[in-house]
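Hey all, sorry for the wall of text incoming. These are the two entities for the joint prediction.
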Amino acid sequence: MSRFWKPGAERPQLLDDEEGGVIFFSAPSSAAGYGYANLERQRQRLPVYKFRTAILYLVEKHATSIVVGETGSGKTTQIPQYLKEAGWAEGGRVIACTQPRRLAVQSVASRVAEEMGVKLGEEVGYTIRFEDVTNPGVTVIKFLTDGVLLREMMDDPLLTKYSVIMVDEAHERSLSTDTLLGLLKKVQRRRPDLRLIISSATIEAKSMSAFFSSSKKRPIQVPGDHIPEAVPAIISVEGKGFPVEIHYSEESFSNYVEAAISTVISIHSQEPAGDILVFLTGQDDIEAAVRLLMEDGQAPESRSSGLLILPLYSGLPRAEQDLVFSPTPKGKRKVIISTNIAETSLTLEGVVYVVDSGFSKQRFYNPISDIENLVVAPISKASARQRAGRAGRVRPGKCFRLYTEEYFVKEMPNEGIPEMQRSNLVSCVIQLKSLGIDNILGFDWISPPAPESMIRALEVLYSLGVLDDDAKLTTPTGFQVAEIPLDPMISKMILSANEYGCSEEVITIAAVLSIQSIWVSMRGAQRELDDVKLRFAAAEGDHITYLNIYKGFLNSGKSPQWCHKNFINYQAMKKVLEIREQLIKLLKRLGMILKSCEKDTLAIRKAIVAGFFAHACRLETFGQNGMYKTLRSSQEVHIHPSSVLFRVNPKWVIYNSIVSTDRQYMRHVLAIDPSWLTEAAPHFYQLQKPYPAAY
DNA sequence: GAGCACTGC
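and here's what came out:
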């Protein structure tokens, strides 16, 4: 390896460059009063057993504490227990701990319950969508996704039952984490008793701290209450991860797939046992890499024999995904070729070598065209470190970066662009509106999105009748749409279905549109999949086709075999059932009675148009075959080949979303009558004369 | 006639 690879100078470190087994402590000098002489100076070493005392001191004195550290440092599981022991969960108060992902919530909650020797769902519980394992009045440590906490704010904006809120993985800067942090800063002004603990990777600690210290407004004084210090404290904890040796390539590669393959082969021939994890960007890359490695394995003098090659991406059927968790057979070495799913969402034991391409697919939003694009883009240093860390879970490991050290140091951005600045903001804005945040542009964003994106979101919500002329939520539509946990266009469609008497059918469509795909990923068997689709295909379009599939699924007795036979993803159908159930409960609470329109698809189609009128397109009669233009901005779009309307090309259609590749493809397409547009949204579309070519 | 990084409510 040494001929080609150059070891990197950087050692993964925390705030200070010290040895393991200590906590590094950085806080304003107020800590001196605590009685520990060694806390008088900033960033003093602190023995590990003082972690508990330090945390409790900081939480007592500071409104916000920022805890940085790596995985395995115990911050996620220990801090809530310390707080409970110190009395933060007394008097009916609850300690909340958020995570960005459902799986993490479940596993952390059960670990803490086990450590405390209590039954999960009693003192320690968790809440995620579709699953509430808490016992109100008994549960005092509650784990939940940050999205669920945001939903809870809609009923209780000041989160009055919580004494401490710990936001974990804040450095990931997800849409809901950032929204939550902005709101929590606001809540703090009204609730001086509330304590925040932000748990973040080292690299983000300073910007988090700056966000929570800068305040345009003073806290509202509550008589008799102790006012904690507004400046956040930072405490840094050493993780238990093993060291990972970083190797950079001597020069840059033009083809990272090939580079990854040859790196895997040289690791295999020169390094001791241990599984290899390769980070590529997407299904295409991964399949190409798997194929190349397999071919090499069959060559007579192959250097890759003994490799067990496993692809990993979220679109892969569950059974194939699970293969990566099976133990490595004796005498074999596992090579997992993965997307970013292995960077945070899945933890693979047994990985000792990581190969990092330096790229990932990232979403970018263009507020002008209102289209989200998926682009292969360079990752950040934070991501690169996270990927490298995946090699140090079981023993010291190695990470091979397919780029030069100079590139890493000089060109790679420190942090990625927060999701907030790369996304469509309609859901975020409606959530803020429902919490009474009137001035969206002036909201204290931790990373402000482009004003164009905020304005576009306001426009879309206004056109849906969710916001009024003063940009306030309308009654009842606006409040009802905010209440439904789906894309506002889908929520609006459901509310209209109530008026058209077809809510039974439309909530099914809403559920299908809210999940990834109901088809199993079948690149090799496209023909068969197309044949199956014909069995369900409806002339009206994809939405009605989904209804036919759902009926077939119910008629089969929700059978997994039926799904398998019809190339339908059983897991996805189960999720459709869950979302439907959630919607039924919610709509009942909103005072709606579910109704079926039986076979009247006209009502259904009009309800869909009431939500998606802004996504209307017209076939270009004089252009090439199958070219459409959006009515809104005259963008060129095409019907996606997976749609039942592909090659049918009705004159007028609406779509659910757009997939951009070399062309813009409409996904989930429905044929419409243009008169429904002016009927559903007269403020949005005005009749220009009689429709000449169309009608 | 061809495509889907990853979450979440």
